[in-house]
Design brief:
Length: 112
């Protein structure tokens, strides 16, 4: 059986990043784009694909894409908030300093 690595792609028409596994949609991260800011509003992984770390793969790729595009990130989605909290060295700088408290990202430690 051929199993390929999960693929993450931006689907701007649907305003979401999508993760596929072997050509099947496994999940998505919805966003709203406002000028230089991207707001992540909801992340979902299909139950058939849970337990494989796909949510983290999806969010990492979405945050990397936001960085590459020079966007600030507003993590309204609790999953994205937790991911940033667990990886502050890589991603906390994407959230504007004056907005971090709103997302409980103002504490120094934050690893779960």
């Amino acid at each position: 059986m051929d199993t390929t690595e999960p693929q993450v792609a931006d689907n701007p028409e649907a305003s979401r990043f999508e993760i596929t596994v072997d050509g099947s949609l496994a999940g998505f991260a919805d966003y709203r784009l406002h000028g230089p800011t991207i707001s992540f509003t909801h992340t979902e992984i299909d139950p058939a694909f849970e337990g494989r770390g796909l949510g983290s793969t999806l969010v990492r790729a979405a945050l990397d894409a936001a960085r590459d595009a020079g966007l600030s990130v507003l993590p309204f989605c609790p999953f994205v908030q937790r991911y940033i909290k667990r990886h502050p060295d890589e991603y906390l700088d994407l959230v504007p300093a004056d907005r971090r408290a709103r997302f409980s990202l103002d504490g120094g430690e934050g690893a779960e």
